[in-house]
Design brief:
By secondary structure, the chain is mainly α. It has helices at 34-58, 70-73, 83-90, 113-133, 141-162, 171-193, 202-231, 236-264, 280-296, 302-317, 324-327, 330-347, 353-386, and strands at residues 267-270, 275-278. The chain has a two-stranded antiparallel sheet. Strand 1 and strand 2 form a beta hairpin. The protein is globular and about 70 Å long. Residues 26-40 have low confidence and may be disordered.
Length: 387
């Protein structure tokens, strides 16, 4: 509890504030300054806890301030932007358009295109659903399955592409990681999954989380090392981007598979008499439920989880080639438990929609910590380059 007058933290059950002497009761509450000072006390405690958490997962000292600037980051979303701005964003990352270290922006990134991508894919999915349900054209069903599966993952990958301040990774490389990395992570996950217990109870859910997150992390490491092989350098922000692209590709292929499997659930085939029945309308309803549940809520699942793993690998390897020792280091393991736990809670059969919404938000706090750490890394290199 906190004093309503001075905002200092007090032991629970205190009658008087040991700092300013204020009686802790409803009658002594100062409406003018109480809220502000109490909030300041709560804010200091929250900052202290966040700094301790940051030290555990990134290795930074507890005293280092954590600046999670949600307002600044999203300030460009609803501003007007030109086609030229989008073009300039997508031509970065080539040998001719990658800025020198001293020319990289020191400010928090202000992405905006990711939100446009999210809206465009939402509109496309709605139009495809309209074609199927209202116009009766079933040829649009495959398109609806795949486009709707991309809504969240593609938007998240573009978000981390925009926040990649070094501008040293091209959109072509991101697409390659998205497609090839997504497929590779599926294959690696299937191979590892043969040796780990998986089910939807609590223990089995942790098995699923471990298998899938480890598979995606391994593939992420391979693609980060490719950056290192080409440029002999990579940044924490690069790890966030590559990880998000691998996770986004994984999410799209997995979600499309779930949507298709749900679509087929109402199909019944009796092999003895080769009878066949198919409730198309019920299949479409079931499919739309999965689309809404997985396509949209994926803004806080695989892509963000793997982005965290990618950033943690960059911190653990300290710009060296990512190897087995990187996966067993404290900086990586301290962060890797986050996506595993969130993944397990997501798959564990308890709770409802509210659980999913909360789990969509939590990984972003960790991702923003790494964005903050990545910007500090860039600023340090810029200062060294100008000395």
């Amino acid at each position: 509890m906190f004093c309503y007058n001075c905002g200092k933290e007090l032991p629970d059950g205190s009658v008087f504030c040991s700092y300013c002497g204020t009686k802790i009761s409803a009658g002594s509450f100062n409406a003018k300054s109480g809220f502000k000072k109490s909030a300041e006390g709560i804010g200091k405690s929250a900052t202290s806890a966040m700094n301790a958490f940051t030290k555990n997962i990134t290795g930074e000292e507890t005293g280092t301030p954590v600046e999670i600037r949600f307002r600044d980051v999203f300030s460009g979303v609803f501003k007007k932007h030109t086609q030229k701005e989008a073009d300039e964003l997508f031509i970065c990352g080539t040998s001719l358009t990658t800025p020198d270290v001293k020319d990289i922006s020191k400010e928090w990134p202000k992405p905006w295109l990711f939100f446009r991508i999210f809206i465009y894919l939402m509109i496309a999915s709605v139009l495809l659903a309209f074609i199927v349900f209202n116009m009766g054209n079933y040829l649009a069903v495959p398109g609806l399955m795949f486009v709707s599966s991309m809504i969240g993952p593609a938007a998240v990958a573009v978000f981390f592409f925009e926040t990649n301040s070094p501008r040293n990774i091209s959109i072509f490389y991101v697409i390659k990681v998205f497609v090839i990395g997504g497929l590779m992570s599926l294959i690696v996950t299937l191979v590892i999954g043969n040796y780990v217990y998986q089910s939807f109870n609590l223990i089995g859910a942790f098995g699923i989380g471990l298998v899938e997150e480890l598979g995606k992390a391994i593939v992420t490491a391979l693609f980060i090392n490719r950056i290192n092989a080409d440029d002999k350098k990579y940044y924490i922000l690069n790890g966030l981007l590559i990880g998000s692209a691998v996770g986004a590709g994984f999410a799209v292929f997995e979600t499309a598979g779930y949507v298709f499997a749900t679509f087929l659930e109402s199909m019944q085939v009796d092999m003895g008499w080769f009878s066949y029945s198919f409730d198309f309308e019920q299949s479409m309803v079931n499919m739309m439920v999965i689309i809404i549940l997985r396509g949209i809520t994926s803004i806080g699942t695989h892509a963000v989880w793997t982005a965290i793993s990618g950033a943690a690998l960059c911190v653990a390897s300290n710009k060296e080639t990512i190897a087995i020792k990187s996966f067993t280091s404290v900086p990586f393991l301290g962060a890797f438990i986050v996506p595993i736990t969130l993944h397990a809670l997501w798959d564990w059969e308890f709770g409802g929609v509210m659980k999913l919404l909360i789990l969509c938000i939590l990984p972003w706090f960790v991702a923003f910590i790494y964005i903050n750490r990545g910007i500090k890394e860039i600023n340090t290199e810029m200062n060294q380059a100008t000395e």
